[in-house]
Amino acid sequence: MTGPQVVEERQAAGHQARAHAKRSEHAKIGAIDRDPVELLKANSAGRVETLIPRRYGRMGVSPFTFFRGSAILQAHDLAGTVNSGIAFPICGDAHLMDFGGFATPERQLVFDLNDFDEVATGPWEWDLKRLVESFATAGEHMGLGRGPIDEFVWSAVY
């Protein structure tokens, strides 16, 4: 049921969340004092052992492929940052290569996530921050300047 009262309640909850997590606070990058190799090793626990070297090899191709394979690092970095307190199942690995176009059973075209292997309950801001950073990392890898990269970032956020 969505009526005026429900909308007002949601708006009030959003305003309360913003008071807790001001927009300017989202610029902070979090706790980057960590050993990335140890985090990646820990993240590999439970994976098929024979495929781990192949995974690391793919990650070594470019800064963007490293970014794609190292969601654990950004999750660690963001864990101590401010968030709105609005948590639900997030992709956990939202980046520009994890989206695509799909046809619904009703033959409608939709654009949505297509990779859910890192799903966990967490702050929605983490997915947005990871997605935005993927645009910046890809732009840098392609040799684009700050102007186009800033446009990518703003387009993704808004």
Short description:
With 158 residues, the chain is mainly alpha-helical.
- Give the topology string: H per helix, E per strand: HHHHHEEEEHH
How many distinct helices?
A: 7
Low-confidence stretches: none
Supply the helix-strand structural class: mainly alpha
Helix content class: 40-55%
Indicate the proportion of strand residues: 5-15%
Largest sheet: 2 strands, antiparallel
Radius of gyration: 18 Å
Q: List the quaternary state of the chains.
A: single chain
Mean pLDDT: 88
Strand line-up across the major sheet: 1-4
Number of strands: 4
Shape: globular
Structure report:
This protein is mainly alpha-helical and 158 residues long. The protein has one domain (31-157). 50% of the residues lie in helices and 11% in strands. The chain has helices at residues 4-20, 36-44, 52-59, 63-69, 71-78, 124-141, 146-157; strands at residues 87-90, 99-103, 109-113, 120-123. The strands form two sheets. The protein has a two-stranded antiparallel sheet with strand order 1-4. Strands 2-3 form a two-stranded antiparallel ribbon. Helix 3 crosses helix 4 (63-69). The model has no long low-confidence stretch (mean pLDDT 88).
